[in-house]
Structures are given as structure tokens and as C-alpha cells.
Design goal:
The protein is α+β, with helices and mostly antiparallel strands. The chain is 39% helix and 15% strand. It has 3 helices and 3 strands. Strands 1-3-2 form a 3-stranded antiparallel β-sheet. A hairpin with a 2-residue loop joins β2 and β3. α1 crosses α2 (21-30). It is globular. 12% of the residues are buried.
Length: 72
């Protein structure tokens, strides 16, 4: 699937967020990443609006009191 402005495959979503596909997979498994759409058992897509909302929700203005996402 080519990157569309509406739904990205995991490699496209990873490029948009600056993370690798394995990180997205781990976030899906843990329920800690952006919202995604499962269109088949082994196919997921990310809406650009969901990626942008997730990034906005994780925006910080200071390093004081903020912590990075937990690694598993």
C-alpha cells in the first residue's frame, strides 16, 4: 500500500513518528501506542489524524517531571 494521506501501513506510520515497526508492534501489544485499525488478522493501518493526536497528547514543554515511554 502506498502512503495515503488518510491511512498508513506500519512502515509509513513508523516513518511519520520516527520509530521502527517493532516499536509500533510492541505498542499495539501493550496498548500504549496510537490508535490503529485492524483491517485483517495480519494487517493494520494507522489514520494520520490518530498519529497526530497521539503525538500531541505526548507533547511536553519541559524535561522536569516528564518521562519517556516505558520500555518493555
Amino acid at each position: 500500500m502506498t502512503d495515503s494521506p488518510y491511512a498508513l501501513d506500519p512502515p509509513g506510520a513508523g516513518r511519520r513518528l520516527g520509530v521502527n515497526v517493532d516499536t509500533l508492534k510492541r505498542w499495539r501489544r501493550n496498548g500504549t501506542g496510537p490508535t490503529y485499525v485492524r483491517i485483517a488478522y495480519n494487517r493494520v493501518r494507522y489514520r494520520v489524524s490518530d498519529l497526530d493526536a497521539w503525538m500531541e497528547a505526548h507533547a511536553v514543554t519541559s524535561t522536569t517531571g516528564s518521562s519517556p515511554p516505558q520500555r518493555d
